[in-house]
Design brief:
Length: 679
Amino acid sequence: YTCLHENLFHYLCEDNGGAVTLPAARGDDAWKVYFNENPEEIVDEHFHCLSTKYLCAGVPAVMSTLLANINAYYAHTTASSAVSASDRFAASNFGKEKFVKLLDQLHNSLRIDLSMYRNNFPASSAEKLMDLKSTFLFENCYELYNREFQLSAATMWSLFAVDMKYALEEHEQHRLCKSSAYMNLHFKVKWLHTNYVKDVPPYCGAVPEYPAWFEPFVMQWLNENDDVSLDFPQLKTDYSPQFQKSSEHALFSNSVVDVFTQLTQCFDVVSKLECPDPEIWKRYMKRFAKTIVKVLVAYADIVKKEFPEHLKEEKVACILMNNIQQLRVQLEKMFEAMGGTKLERDAADILNDLQQTLNNTLDELASMFAISLETRITASVKELGDLLQKVGGGGVPGQPQPPAHHEADEVLRPLMDILDGSLTMYAESCEKTVLKRLLKELWKIVMKILEKTVVLPPMTDKTHLSAEKSLSPKQCAVLDAALDTIKLYFHAGGNGLKKTFLEKSPELQSLRYALSLYTQTTDTLIRTFVTSQQNQVVAANDLKWVIQSGMFRPFIEVNLIGPHLADKKRKFATNMVSATEQMDLFELHVCIRDYCFAREDRLVGVAIMRLSDIAEQKFDNQGSCACWLPLGTRIKMDETGWTILRILSQRHSDEVAREFVKLKSEMRSEAPIGTPGPS
């Protein structure tokens, strides 16, 4: 019988030119049919016959399907039977011993033929390549046969790896294909290794070498992806009044979605490579991080460059700021997708730096937006100042003032009219993070304008002081109450800025400090000035003096400066100082002047001598001490000194204040060219 069916099979193959006549049947039961109707009735032992012709085109696929179905048949268990597939197979009349022998022979033949796979399965034949894939048919009979046939995969991979490595090295030099073709090949090689090689000795547990073959081509693909990702066509439509937001409830536009769609697609492709080499994966992530930086920085630069053109369209400006904030949000998500805290340090540092760059960009945009409102805010604050001047009631500096909330509400009206409408629109148009940044910038501007416009007199520069307006203690109390109202407005019941931020902001502290100085007595202000201004004179070497009249008549003027001197002589005489006063509250203001008849004496130089420093000197027998005083052209002050000076400049009826302001604001003026004098 066996001889008969083998001869029939041989005859049918020879009659077909040496090739196996494969069935034309299709469908789930097609594997049961291997010959035409008449031979099928005679031939029954198909697998043995097919194994003799397994190198014929299409036969490996048929054999693999046949084995899979035999295995599935015997591996099927029922509720009443938990017998293994192998035992069920052995108990059948299939002929296990003969079948096992057949598989052993086939396996040995496969090993030999795979070692010459270049000849037996040439790449020029699509059919033979499919046959090569089907030679891994032994995975279909593991349960049935209870043995592993993996040596064929290991043998083929070792030979295939050599060919692939050398071929890709050549392609690296000449780039004969598009980067997408190399990426597709990478995925196919990865599939082959994952399914048939990864668990086979000696490759089991080892880092495979195939990612290194493809690394140059993956990098090439990432480089090319930069150019694609840098195209922002949607960004242009963001500036149109009719531009499309990304969704009904979103406050950012489609251009942000487009940017991250492209970046996400790129990352998904690289991720699906499932690179098993950790070092190569780190390099991929570092390179991709640079792509993200290039794309997002380019986007942010475009927005920053064109942002000033859209400041008048406040809603568009808000959307553009929202876009930058959304870049930060999506960047954080991308960071997490790339590994988060487990991401390689170099890549993580690159993305963290980028996050800070975007943060700074958002701050710049918020600042530009707030500055664009400065003119309107200044006008309203000036109107506020005019209303404040109309508040009646004087009061004495240094004395507590009654509450002034009613007057404060009236005074604030011009400013609140602007803020109320604007902040409502910003709250509707801005992301919460953007809104808070914008509020911070507006808060700073409002506080600064209030200080420079209302609290302190206007100054074009620090060489001349003007004092057109003077605030009474009552007006200071009204303004202080107004600050509390503004602070509550910016806090917005918890939806705006935090109270701690508002209280600790340098701008509010500076304004309140100026107000606190405003209500202090002249003596207290002078005391503060003397104790805070430690280095008032910067020595000027080689001071040249121009003599216009031909005569140089220098004299020294000494002014005693300090508290409680209103009823005492303050020029030349220093013996009027009470011994009970603190020496560090007083100083000698020394001026070198050139005497001029019938006009004001000209200042040659100025020096400061602190009484506490004199007290520390060793006096001679006559009660005098000698020291060098550096001469300067003017007094040097910090902001506190200038603030005190500007406040005192408004006290026109206070002789001590007027005298103090004149001394501290006076500076040497260079005379026209004349006869050179001593230096």
